[in-house]
């Protein structure tokens, strides 16, 4: 067993040595001419320091069966290590894996040469024995410490890039992605985790009365991890309080989740809570309208499908086709409007000017 484990480590060090040799060759290739220069310089002669052969990435990509972008990344890493000699030496000695070398080079690329050397010195001693995630955290601290003014300037520029994106996925799903300043993102995470905790307690009380007050400590680990630093619990409380009637957000869904398929995981609870917050906000009366209509989600489905006579797909505006069951589920809690369409083309022939809220029994 000892020999096998030692052999694993030796293979890893040997792999790093080979990869370091390959990058050294890439760096040498990138620093040489492939064709004669404009002033009569012979082919296969060295470029002046700092100049890179523009065709090196193509040669690397062709030889290694990579895309040109992947070839460019290899050339970038190889040349980036010229100003990180200690990292390059540790890599060649098999002390650093390629993923750690990438992390060091990319993290320190935002610093000037002196600051990069300072940050490299701070992290390199422990890097061989650290996991990649721990190394990245140390790198983040070292970069900020090496040049706080530049770090603040980068933070201001990065904040301007905040945005939210919606990407349709198969099977009636969407990916909701947000790029936020770290404090805001952690506040959002803590808020949905706190509400997910509340929903889980209600779900347990529904399925097993009395159990909600006797949870094991390990059941709350996820929630505690999300709140264990920087006062995020307080931020979550402030964020939740901004939403009207937030206490009612998950009460019905807790019962439905417990009755429909057992207890939900924390990931599922967080996702449901985030969706519930959005639905609660859409019920507010102070939201601006568009063409005298409140913000809403719109699903179109055939009357025969709504009545359960067939299973034609519904249409979710902004997304596309959804299953009949999903469309009926949304329609059960929606306001209805009559649309008359041409059965041959699907074109709209008449648009109802009145709306109808179906009663619960319907």
Written overview of the protein:
The chain has 362 residues and is mainly alpha-helical. The chain contains 15 helices and seven strands. The protein has a three-stranded antiparallel beta sheet with strand order 3-4-5, with helices on one face. Strands 1-2 form a two-stranded antiparallel sheet. β6 (336-341) and β7 (348-356) form a beta hairpin. α1 (2-30) packs across α3 (68-80) and α6 (113-124) packs across α7.
Question: How would you describe the oligomerization state of the chains in this entry?
Answer: single chain
Distance between the termini: 68 Å
Indicate the structural class: mainly alpha
Number of strands: 7
Order of adjacent strands in the largest pleated sheet: 3-4-5
On the 0 to 100 scale, the average pLDDT is 80
Which descriptor suits the 3D outline? elongated
Write the layout of secondary structure elements.
Elements: H1 2-30, H2 56-64, H3 68-80, H4 85-92, H5 98-108, H6 113-124, H7 132-146, H8 148-159, E1 163-169, E2 173-179, H9 182-207, H10 221-227, H11 232-241, H12 251-261, H13 266-282, E3 299-300, H14 303-306, E4 314-316, E5 320-322, H15 324-331, E6 336-341, E7 348-356
């Amino acid at each position: 067993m000892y020999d096998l484990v030692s052999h694993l480590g030796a293979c890893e060090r040997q792999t790093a040595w080979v990869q370091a040799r390959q990058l050294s060759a890439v760096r040498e290739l990138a620093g040489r001419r492939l064709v004669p220069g404009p002033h009569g310089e012979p082919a296969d002669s060295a470029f002046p320091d700092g100049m890179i052969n523009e065709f090196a990435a193509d040669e690397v990509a062709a030889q290694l069966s990579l895309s040109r972008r992947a070839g460019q990344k290899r050339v970038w890493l190889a040349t980036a290590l010229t100003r990180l000699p200690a990292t390059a030496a540790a890599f060649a000695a098999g002390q650093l894996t390629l993923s750690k070398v990438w992390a060091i080079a990319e993290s320190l690329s935002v610093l000037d040469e002196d600051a990069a050397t300072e940050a490299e010195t701070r992290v390199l001693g422990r890097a061989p024995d650290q996991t990649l995630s721990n190394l990245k955290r140390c790198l983040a601290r070292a970069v900020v410490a090496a040049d706080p003014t530049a770090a603040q300037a980068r933070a201001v520029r990065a904040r301007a890039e905040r945005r939210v994106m919606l990407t349709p996925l198969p099977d009636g799903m969407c990916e909701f992605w947000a790029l936020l300043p770290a404090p805001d993102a952690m506040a959002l995470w803590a808020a949905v985790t706190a509400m997910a905790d509340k929903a889980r307690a209600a779900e347990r009380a529904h399925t097993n009365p009395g159990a909600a007050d006797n949870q094991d400590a390990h059941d709350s680990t996820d929630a505690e991890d999300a709140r264990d630093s920087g006062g995020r619990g307080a931020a979550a409380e402030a964020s939740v309080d901004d939403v009207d009637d937030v206490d009612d957000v998950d009460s019905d869904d807790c019962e439905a989740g417990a009755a429909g398929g057992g207890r939900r995981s924390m990931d599922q609870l967080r996702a449901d809570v985030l969706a519930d917050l959005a639905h609660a906000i859409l019920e507010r009366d102070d939201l601006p309208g568009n063409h005298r209509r409140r913000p809403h989600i719109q699903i179109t489905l055939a009357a025969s499908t709504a009545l359960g006579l067939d299973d034609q797909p519904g249409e979710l505006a902004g997304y596309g086709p959804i299953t009949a069951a999903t469309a009926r589920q949304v329609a059960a809690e929606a306001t209805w409007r009559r649309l008359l369409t041409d059965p041959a083309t699907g074109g709209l022939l008449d648009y109802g000017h009145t709306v109808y809220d179906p009663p619960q029994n319907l």
